[in-house]
């Protein structure tokens, strides 16, 4: 069981833990108890102390959760827990498809149950203490049940389709599986707002009035055909605000959090919207989809190379080649590559954010956008001085200061 692949996997798991905690410690050191010059007046003394506290609490919480999950994975690895589960699944079901589905169902459920206390603590202790939480216990439980049901049905169907292709085509199944996964994620992207969001939130068309007029006026100026503007009840869970763009082609819609409408002025909301339209105009949705297709292709191709290997199954505590064991081993072996592709995707995404900001600024909305971003940042007590390397690895958006500096040029 403890073969060379086993040790590589352990090395990756421990390596990732050390790397992420090294970055988190750099981020701790970068946290500045003094407000950056450009943001004077943004926070008062007390509010900034809150922000520093919120950051420290989250940083410590991250250390605890990541230590806990890493230890769980190591425990499973060293005790051969995956191999044991594999034997159990195949003794119950014998056939590949039901046994594999059962294997991942148990893994998913156990993992989720073991991490629930952390979710609970995050929502009802940390977020609550800083005044963000609006989630009731009832909503929390309902969310969990719905996401389980959804994850089990959708994940199960997709996995069953992939397994069926594998049985039919052997290891050359990978490119057909790619097509299935890509088609599926396109579908999900198209119908996200209509199928998935309603499970968790209420969306209502933005009512007639000053805001809607201002938005429509802007959309006209920008040459953007806008027929769907929705307001979502984000306040059901948190006071934090947001806006996003979803869907493709005729299904595209702009969604504003009700909390955003409460906190920002009309001009600031228009600027935030202009930013979202900027993403659309620069075809960022399609570009990101292209990147994720390439990512899927790479992953399935590499998976097809190792799927039948008995070394992988042995490393996981199994005795014969096994699809679920190889899949788990592959997932763990993929960690460094996942980190690298993540860094690349985040760099691209940050570049897109600057482009979308520049689009908003080209309509004379630079000041309004800065105003809106500042309010959102203060409201969510976001970290104003993250470590630069931490930003490069994890941030999909530039920091507030970076965006302000870029927007100043358009004033
Ligand atoms: Zn954006």
TrEMBL record:
Essential cofactor(s): Zn(2+)
Gene Ontology process terms (BP): CAAX-box protein processing
- Domain Peptidase M48, which positions? 205-410
**Entry's InterPro entries?**
CAXX_Prtase_1, Peptidase_M48, Peptidase_M48_N
Annotated membrane topology is: Multi-pass membrane protein
Output one GO MF annotation. Answer: metal ion binding
Q: What is this protein called?
A: STE24 endopeptidase
Q: Which family does it belong to?
A: Belongs to the peptidase M48 family.
Q: Which domain of life is it from?
A: Bacteria
Q: What phylogenetic lineage does the species belong to?
A: Bacteria, Pseudomonadati, Bacteroidota, Bacteroidia, Bacteroidales
Keywords recorded for this protein, A-Z? Endoplasmic reticulum, Hydrolase, Membrane, Metal-binding, Metalloprotease, Protease, Transmembrane, Transmembrane helix, Zinc
Q: Which CDD domains match?
A: M48A_Zmpste24p_like
Q: Which residues form a coiled coil?
A: none
Keyword Protease attributed: yes
Q: What is the active site of this protein?
A: 276, 357
Q: How is the cofactor bound?
A: Binds 1 zinc ion per subunit.
- The UniProt transmembrane annotation reads 6-24, 61-84, 96-114, 147-167, 173-192, 288-307, 327-348
Q: Where in the cell is it found?
A: Endoplasmic reticulum membrane
Please tell me where this protein is predominantly located: endoplasmic reticulum
Q: Where is the CAAX prenyl protease 1 N-terminal domain?
A: 29-202
Q: Which Pfam families match?
A: Peptidase_M48, Peptidase_M48_N
Q: Where does Zn(2+) bind?
A: 275, 279, 353
């Amino acid at each position: 069981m403890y073969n060379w692949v086993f040790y590589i996997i352990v090395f990756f798991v421990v390596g990732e833990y050390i790397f992420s905690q090294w970055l988190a410690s750099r981020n701790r050191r970068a946290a500045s108890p003094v407000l950056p010059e450009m943001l004077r007046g943004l926070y008062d003394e007390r509010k900034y102390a809150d922000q520093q506290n919120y950051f420290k609490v989250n940083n410590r919480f991250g250390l605890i959760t990541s230590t806990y999950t890493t230890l769980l994975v190591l425990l499973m690895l060293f005790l051969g827990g995956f191999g044991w589960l594999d034997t159990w699944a195949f003794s119950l079901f014998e056939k590949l498809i039901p046994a594999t589905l059962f294997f991942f169902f148990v893994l998913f459920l156990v993992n989720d149950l073991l991490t629930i206390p952390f979710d609970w603590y995050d929502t009802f202790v940390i977020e609550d203490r800083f005044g963000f939480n609006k989630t009731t216990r009832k909503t929390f439980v309902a969310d969990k049940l719905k996401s389980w049901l959804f994850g089990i049905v959708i994940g199960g169907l997709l996995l069953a389709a992939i397994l069926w292709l594998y049985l039919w085509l052997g290891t050359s199944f990978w490119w057909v599986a790619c097509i299935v996964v890509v088609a599926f994620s396109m579908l999900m992207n198209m119908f996200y707002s209509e199928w998935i969001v309603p499970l968790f939130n209420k969306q209502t068309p933005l009512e007639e009035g000053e805001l809607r007029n201002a938005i429509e006026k802007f959309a006209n100026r920008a040459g953007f055909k806008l027929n769907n503007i929705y307001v979502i009840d984000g306040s059901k869970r948190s006071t934090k605000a947001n806006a996003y763009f979803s869907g493709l082609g005729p299904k595209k819609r702009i969604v504003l959090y009700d909390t955003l409408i409460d906190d920002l002025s009309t001009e600031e909301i228009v600027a935030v919207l202009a930013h979202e339209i900027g993403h659309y105009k620069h075809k960022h949705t399609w570009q990101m989809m292209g990147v994720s297709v390439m990512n899927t292709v790479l992953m399935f191709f590499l998976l097809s190379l190792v799927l039948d290997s008995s070394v992988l199954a042995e490393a996981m505590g199994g005795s014969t080649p096994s699809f679920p064991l190889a899949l788990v081993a592959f997932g763990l072996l993929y960690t460094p590559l996942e980190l690298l592709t993540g860094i690349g995707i985040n760099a691209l995404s940050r570049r897109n954010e600057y482009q979308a900001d520049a689009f908003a600024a080209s309509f004379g909305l630079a000041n309004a956008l800065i105003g809106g971003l500042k309010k959102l940042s203060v409201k969510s007590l976001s970290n104003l001085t993250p470590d630069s390397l931490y930003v490069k690895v994890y941030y999909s958006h530039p920091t507030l200061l970076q965006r302000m500096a870029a927007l100043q040029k358009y004033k």
